Amino acid sequence: ERGRLRRLLRCCGVPLALNVSWATIWTLLICVPVRDGDHFGMFPVFVLGNVLSLPTGILLVSRLGPAVLSKHYALMTAPSCVFFPIFGFAAVVAGYITLRRIAGVWIGILMPLVLSIYEFLGTILVAKIFILKFLTKRKVRESYAGTNQGVIVSMAICNLHALAEGARLTLLYVDGFENPSPSILIPIVSGVLWNVMVRLGGLDRFLHVVTNGWRKPNNGSRLLRESGYCMGYPRFGAVGALLLARLCISTPMRLDGPELRLFGIVLLAEICEDL
């Protein structure tokens, strides 16, 4: 009975502690004034939030989580499942914003391609490391016998798609804020058309033909396509976060403002993709 209770606490208590600690860190970074009543901007909050959250997460998991049976496997898997998606997200956002300011509005057509490259590279990296550090290592497999280590790969791939969609929403928000015009529809429409093509397997078929059969569809690419049906919606939690952040700095969002209108259009586009 005690063992069952301990497992329950680990399954529920550790994720709860992680989310509470991370939410506290990000809330403090958003709310604490820097000087003259000003606050950190989006990019400093993102960098500092991750720099502080990562060691906090590692400390909590090492102290409260399950025992690490293979440190080498854990140290190699964690970066591909956590660090690459997060910092890849930052690189995509910063790179696209720079390109948008240099090349103009029509660069929005390439937004889906940039995000897909991020997702595919991340999926390949996660799968490769899992194969090299788990499937081909007999001692590691024996250490984790009876556990479902494959779920780590599934979570990482779903996380990649969720972050890619989060990056899309962030880029659209920044673009709409800096350049309020109907041109914001260019990346939205191109994104819908591209994502529908990807979900139908068009990109996998194209890569298979271009590489003369070397690049074949696999379980990772299939899971990435399937994750599009559910992992496109978590990004809309950012709307609530933005509302709370605005309240914290005493600049509430207007219900008839362009921001909520943009979020509504993006949500409608996501629903159209799923249909």
Describe the structure.
- By secondary structure, this protein is an all-alpha fold.
- Helices cover 76% and strands 0% of the residues.
- Helix 4 packs antiparallel against helix 6 and helix 7 packs parallel to helix 11.
- It is globular.
- It starts with a helix and ends with a helix.
- The model has no long low-confidence stretch (mean pLDDT 83).
List the helices and strands and how they pair.
Blueprint: H1 2-31, H2 42-64, H3 71-103, H4 111-135, H5 138-143, H6 150-178, H7 185-199, H8 202-210, H9 219-227, H10 237-248, H11 258-274
Helix pairs in contact: 1-2, 3-4, 3-6, 4-6, 6-9, 6-11, 7-11
Strand runs, count: 0
Shape: globular
Structural class: mainly alpha
Which residues sit in consecutive blocks of at least 5 with pLDDT less than 50?
none
Radius of gyration: 21 Å
SSE ordering = HHHHHHHHHHH
Straight-line N-to-C gap: 46 Å
Report the total helices: 11
Query: Could you report the average pLDDT, rounded to the nearest whole number?
Result: 83
Strand content: under 5%
Biggest beta-sheet profile: none
Portion in helices = over 70%
Q: Quick gist of this model?
A:
This protein has 275 residues and is mainly alpha-helical.
Key structural traits:
275 residues; 76% helix; 11 helices; mainly alpha; globular
